[in-house]
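Good morning N.,

You mentioned wanting to compare the apo and holo forms, so I went ahead and generated the holo version with nickel (II) ion. This is what I fed in:
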Amino acid sequence: MKFTYYGHSCFSIDFDGFRLLFDPFISPNEKAEKIDIDAIQADYILLTHGHQDHVVDLERIAKNTGATLISNYELVSYYGEKGIEGHPLNHGGSAEFPFGRVKYVTAIHSSVLPDGTYGGNPGGFVIEGKEQTFYFAGDTALTYDMKLIPEMGFDLDVAILPIGDNFTMGPDEAVKASDFVQCNQIIGVHYDTFPYIEIDHEEAKKKFAGKNKTLYLLAVGEQIEI
Ligand code: NI
Ligand code: MN
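and this is what came out, ligand included:
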């Protein structure tokens, strides 16, 4: 799979020939000013929760690309009224898509849309394709529920974890989360965008390296093949 970072918690993954875009927040992010939003291609947009720093460019990209939204029931209903097609899930549920199976899993956080509409309960996704499987935690605290992911039989190639602290886990909890989900390749997201969530990159990478794990902290626009 090819991972492309668009800053904050926004990234796309080319997965078995399908383009999956996550949590589209690009235009207000000064660190992502070089990203051409209208050039982004997506077959599916996966949304973890309704907060502004995850949804701002969703309508624009969905309308540009005709992508199908995958999220919780409340968010899919909200965007459905705006003409965006979607597939609703809720916690513990999974569904088959042409690129693989998507399971909506627990996140400990909150979720309200920028206009004040209730955004359902926040979640994360486990995505299992023919060859590879990955986990995107969304915005979350560390939670024992993460242990269920390997227990349910998911063998992760990579885990994408928030790492900026303050609103989500910080680096120490993210190391523990990677143990809970039994994964040694971690891509960090949700850091450095705002002063509240600035982290020391070298220190964070050292914490993972100390456990024989690799933490990738990509530059905006950077790609990585996993
Ligand atoms: Ni959030
Ligand atoms: Mn957030």
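The chain has six helices and 14 strands.

Happy to go through it together on a call whenever suits you.

Best,
F.
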